[in-house]
Amino acid sequence: MSDNLKHHRDTTASQESVERLSKVAKIEGFSDEEEGLVYSESELSMNPGNPRLQRYLVAIEYIGTRFSGSQQQATDRTVVGVLQEAFHKFIGQPVKIFCSSRTDAGVHALSNVCHVDVERISKRKPGEVLPPHEPGVVQKAVNHFLQRKDGDVMVIDVRCVPSNYHARYKARERTYFYRILSGSDPLSILEKDRCWHVPEELNLRSMQEACKVLVGTHDFSSFRAAGCQAKSAMRSLDELSVTEVPSTPYFPSITERASNLNNGDPFACSSQHKTETAGVGTNVGEVEGSTDGDSFGARRRHRCYVVTARSRGFLYHQVRLLVGVLKSVGTGELTVADVERILEAKTVSASKPMAPASGLYLARVKYEFP
User: Fold this and answer.
1) pTM score
2) Are strands 108-118 and 153-161 parallel, antiparallel or unpaired?
3) How far is 263 from 132, CA to CA, in rounded Å?
4) 240-259 burial string, b = 16+ CB within 10 Å, else e?
5) Residue 27 resides in a domain
6) Which residues form the Pseudouridine synthase I TruA alpha/beta domain (predicted)?
7) Residues 229 and 161 in one domain
């Protein structure tokens, strides 16, 4: 077979692959919380089958407030830009990275996933192709270069996948967390840009009842931002829940420490004598709830709530708009009946302002592997 004919067939196969992916994207409505539905040809294209390339699926975590979003931009610092630079330093040649989910500036990731094609070339003998690196080597080496700079991105897992395995289109499910801290005291600087501080008290039961209205398959036109380019607003929300959890960073109170001592915790040690006060062990001189020196300088804890949203794909800003409505239900500004009305209105103008980006975390992208 002539080289020209072979090249023509490879090019045709590559174009057909792009067209198939494009159709899949349109049919299944791939979209994420922070993105619309516009894909460049490079995003839709697959590895054309170059046997010298190894495709890796890479899971990463990052602090979203340090970036102007995840996708690469011409001038601003982005997650993909920083990650591509670290890979370049590792293998000595540029790479192109594709994320499973785009996130806006300020949105964090406990686990976002991307894929990258790497050709391992010998540094001692330029042009000589070596066997692919083991996933553990890739993770350790890329993290080395990431941590040498700002250290706000970290690779948490790496896996070898076939050349046609696409991080976005192979994703079966995405889970987002949203953290809300409720309380009248000022927010701790340790929580700055990590949550949404709501001064009012929140009614957890009412928020949970509102979730029941929103979970399931609906037209979520009232919960997508104006910039959303998805052709359909129909989405299946597999989970929407609100849970109260300990605020973080979490440190034990006087009562909890004393309780461990009195319960015989072998790892709890104190040089002070134990006494019994109202059924709870405390150290001498430490009175829980006192207004003296024991309470001076002690910060009162906020109540922490986590909203969990799980679906195969989300509309543009859908999660943040959902959280904005749930918060309004928690403060009493809206009722559960109001949530039903907003959903039926099918226009974002009927909704409440969306929650800020800083409380949102991409928690997990789920895959099925052969």
Assistant:
1) 0.81
2) unpaired
3) 54
4) bebeeeebeeeeeebeebbb
5) no
6) 59-169, 210-368
7) no
Hunting for tokens 């986590």 — which residue is that?
Answer: 306
Asked whether residue 106 is assigned to any structural domain, the reply reads yes
pLDDT per residue as tens digits for the range 217-237:
999 999 999 888 899 999 999
Q: Read off the pLDDT of residues 16-70 as tens digits, 9 standing for 90 and up.
A: 444 554 444 443 444 455 444 444 445 545 455 577 899 999 999 999 999 998 9
Tokens of 257: 């420490």
Q: Is the dihedral of CA 167, 168, 172, 174 positive or negative?
A: positive
| 354 & 215 share domain | yes
Q: Calculate the dihedral angle through the C-alpha atoms of 197, 337, 226, 241, rounding to the nearest 10 degrees.
A: 50
Give the tens place of pLDDT for each residue, 166-182.
Answer: 999 999 999 999 999 99
How remote is the C-alpha of 61 from its chain's centroid?
8
Work out the number of other CB atoms within 10 angstroms of the CB of residue 183. Answer: 18
Bridge pairing between strands 196-198 and 171-182: parallel
214 with 97, same domain?
no
Say yes or no: 187 and 237 in one domain: yes
Tokens of 233: 């607003």
Two structure tokens written together for 51: 């046997």
Q: Give the chain's domain count.
A: 2
How high is the pLDDT of residue 295? 72
Same domain, 150 and 85: yes
Catalytic residue among 104, 150, 152, 157: 104
CB-based burial label for 286 (10 Å; 0-12, 13-18, 19+): middle
**Catalytic (active site) residue 150:** no
Clarify whether residues 317 and 356 are in a common domain. Answer: yes
Paired residues of 304 in beta bridges: 181, 245
**Which residue range forms the structural domain that includes residue 65?**
53-165
- The pLDDT of residue 79 is 96
Q: Confidence band (pLDDT; 50, 70, 90) for 126?
A: confident
For 149-206, how does the pLDDT look when each residue is reduced to its tens digit (9 = 90+)? 889 999 999 999 999 999 999 999 999 999 999 999 999 999 999 999 999 999 999 9
155 and 115 within one domain: yes
Q: In which band, very low, low, confident or very high, does the pLDDT at 257 lie, cut at 50, 70 and 90?
A: confident
Q: What's the gap between Cα 75 and its chain centre?
A: 24
Question: Considering 137, 165, 193, which residue would you say is the last residue of a domain?
Answer: 165
CA distance 344 to 339: 9
